[in-house]
Amino acid sequence: xxxxxxxxxxxxxxxxxxxxxxxxxxxxxxxxxxxxxxxxxxxxxxxxxxxxxxxxxxxxxxxxxxxxxxxxxxxxxxxxxxxxxxxxxxxxxxxxxxxxxxxxxxxxxxxxxxxxxxxxxxxxxxxxxxxxxxxxxxxxxxxxxxxxxxxxxxxxxxxxxxxxxxxxxxxxxxxxxxxxxxxxxxxxxxxxxxxxxxxxx
Length: 201
Hints:
By secondary structure, the chain is mainly α.
């Protein structure tokens, strides 16, 4: 059974082609949005053969899926400060910097918009966030082990609660969050967690 286009992880020259194509796709998304993402244009920007792009990714949604997978793989690892408060603040600041970045912020807005009307993009976006939440959840789990948070606290929910206000502000105001917004988001999630708002079971 052959793999779905955009799911095979290549090496060597093929890896360089993939990197160039994904970079070009990200540029188009950031500059023009999902509606203007075209495989032929991406191939031209990446300076690779159009046939190569069509054969490997097959469709715009296949390309976006691979782009999100790559972004998840390349994202920075979690912080391990020994304090759940500082770990959550580090997570919030990573999200804030990403959304405030001219290219990355525009790229995320484009992908989120596309996910509202395209099922495969929506699934790829969910997978991206599953990877990122799983990366940071151990910070909360360590906080529970150290007695900083109640036993039974749902780690994934706390991590989502940290970033949710930052995304909401960006999407509803069009203004990128500031570092102070990141601190407030982390502290609010921590206060709710300490008040057992995220205890399950």
